[in-house]
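User: Can you predict the 3D structure for this chain?
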Amino acid sequence: MYNRIFSNQLRFFILTCCCFALSFQGIAQEKTYQLSSHILDISTGKPAAGVTITLSKKENNDQWKIIDEKKTDANGRIKDFLPQTSNNLGIYKLTFHTKPYFKQLGQQSFYPFIEVVFELADNEHYHVPITLSAYGYATYRGN
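Assistant: Here is the predicted structure, written as structure tokens:
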């Protein structure tokens, strides 16, 4: 009888360890990204959802190459630009396509789009948000 109880406890322990190892492996293999962005519409105090943002990289010939294009989520965020690699160094540009956003709100905007140019100089995470209104904007390096 003791062997059966010990055997069941051992099976449970081994099963628990395997499940933990598999869940840890899933976490360890989760994809990370080096760049994110966010838009806060300061005229409403709310995130700007559904805004297209284009990511471009400056090439050696001084031309811009489009790398990715996404729409902000309901929280005004894009969390998954540039998969984390060691080769993302360079000069980048985020183009925030604001005219359609303001048109949808029934407003005119002085800025049909906003371009923010910045340099990735290391492998750290960069967050490049803007605060926005129809006649002004600000940007900064967030975290």
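The two ends are 58 Å apart (CA to CA). The CA atoms of residues 36 and 127 lie 5 Å apart.
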